Amino acid sequence: MNSSLIDQVELALDGIRPYLKADGGNVKVIEITDDLVLRLELTGACSSCPMSTMTLKAGVEEAVKRAVPEIVKVEAVNVVVA
User: Fold this and answer.
1) Is residue 81 pLDDT above 60, yes or no?
2) Which of the residue ranges 2-6, 48-52, 58-62, 63-67 has the most confident prediction, judged by mean pLDDT?
3) What is the 3-state secondary structure (H, E, C) of the chain?
């Protein structure tokens, strides 16, 4: 796994973590796959929030892709899309 990509992703996530933490949640990087899919775990309140899919797509994925355009997709390992 490319540690420089992970560092860039972590920096992007640091920019939105205060908003997640304000609602009692956070996000943890699990891996970046060989085909450049970022796999995350939503933690705290984010893991059970009905809006977590929206948070993932509109907030997390947007921030990551803007900062690290190499990432082709962001998915959460613990979010079930309704």
Assistant:
1) no
2) 63-67
3) CCHHHHHHHHHHHHHHHHHHHHCCEEEEEEEECCCCEEEEEEEEHHHCCCCHHHHHHHHHHHHHHHHCCCCCEEEECCCCCC
